[in-house]
User: Which sequence fits this backbone?
């Protein structure tokens, strides 16, 4: 780990509440970002609002996040799973297919999102009009922008977790009220 962690007793009440609801990995992340309490107190509502208030649905959002994780190879991100995504139809077969090129098990909308996310994470310069045309075949402009924002959020925070050395088998940012589910 390349940072110290703020003791929960020294956190603001707001961050302490986030820390208390977090998984072990989430507690490491909260402890690290608590060094910047004003920013951290704005971070969690933003992150959770975008991730859990998504218009593209929990399964597609989770596939997007896991596609980004394929490009960074972040073990924290690769292992985390959301129960809501499974409830919405995502399967481990979908997750396994992210590392290949066969999109046959995905809906056409999911395939467009997965391909966009993989390019976003691996070679954003390769994204062009065809990628946006594929997204717009299934999503309106608000949803297309949401997809881009989700890609940016997951890529950036996944890299921050790795740079700080906060490797734990669960997603480091807990949803409001409950930790993310992990599958190893």
Assistant:
């Amino acid at each position: 780990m390349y940072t110290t962690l703020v003791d929960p007793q020294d956190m603001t009440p707001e961050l302490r509440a986030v820390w208390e609801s977090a998984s072990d990995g989430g507690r490491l992340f909260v402890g690290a970002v608590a060094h910047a309490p004003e920013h951290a107190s704005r971070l969690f509502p933003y992150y959770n609002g975008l991730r859990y208030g998504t218009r593209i649905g929990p399964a597609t959002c989770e596939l997007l996040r896991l596609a980004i994780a394929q490009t960074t190879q972040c073990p924290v991100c690769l292992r985390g799973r959301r129960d809501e995504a499974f409830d919405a139809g995502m399967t481990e077969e979908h997750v396994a297919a992210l590392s290949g090129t066969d999109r046959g098990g995905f809906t056409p909308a999911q395939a467009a999102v997965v391909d966009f996310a993989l390019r976003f994470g691996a070679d954003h310069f390769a994204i062009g009009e065809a990628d946006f045309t594929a997204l717009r075949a299934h999503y309106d402009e608000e949803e297309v922008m949401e997809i881009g924002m989700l890609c940016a959020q997951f890529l950036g925070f996944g890299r921050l977790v790795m740079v700080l050395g906060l490797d734990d088998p669960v997603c480091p940012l807990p949803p409001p009220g409950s930790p993310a589910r992990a599958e190893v």
